[in-house]
Amino acid sequence: MSRKPLPTPSADHRMRGFEPAFGLMKEAVRSAGESRGFAVARLLTHWAEAVGEELARKTRPVKIGYGKGGMGATLTLLVKAAEAPMVQMALPRLKERVNAVYGYNAISHIHLTQTAATGFAEGQAEFAPAPKPAKSPDPATTAQAQAAAEGVADPSLRSALEQLAQNILTRPRS
Fold first, then answer.
1. What is the residue-averaged pLDDT of the chain?
2. For the residues of 56-123, what is the DSSP string, one character each?
3. 110 - beta bridge partners?
4. Partners of 63 in the β-ladder
5. Whole-angstrom Cα distance, residue 138 to residue 156?
6. CB of 165 within 8 A of CB of 151?
7. Rounded CA gap, 57 and 55, in Å?
8. DSSP code of 151?
9. Phi-psi region for residue 88, left (φ > 0), alpha (ψ -120 to 50) or beta?
10. What is the pLDDT of residues 91-112, one digit of tens each?
11. What is the C-alpha end-to-end distance of the chain, expressed in Å?
């Protein structure tokens, strides 16, 4: 299957100024989602918000299949084999959350698959990268930030100003 190239933006399009990145590719995502059965592309693009961070790390939506009657679709999820029993127990909660995105009971069944998803790149074992370890701030930078916010009496404002000063002092210079 060959992909259709994206249309080139017109001169008027370039003159509109700043736009969110998703606005530029909204049509491409919508058409790709509709080809996989996802009438609401927001389910794909905001999967973590729809089902929660814990379930989003364990699952990935693959497709939605509609039966002969049209009502009561089946959502197919890709799950790692080790996580499948835990996801199976959370299916009622998962179905409620997905149906909340649609606004009605669009999904009646959820099917779990442990094979590589068709349509994605090679079957990926990891759904979410491991969180990066937090860097400890440089003591000299912390001292400079505290000195910058030294005269502020309100502790919450002082803390916010210290954080702002640290962010400014540690940002990369271009």
1. 78
2. HHHEEEEEEE--SSSSSEEEEEEE-TTTHHHHHHTHHHHHHHHHHHHTS--EEEEEEE-SPPTTSSS-
3. 75
4. 76
5. 22
6. no
7. 5
8. T
9. alpha
10. 999 999 888 887 778 788 899 9
11. 43
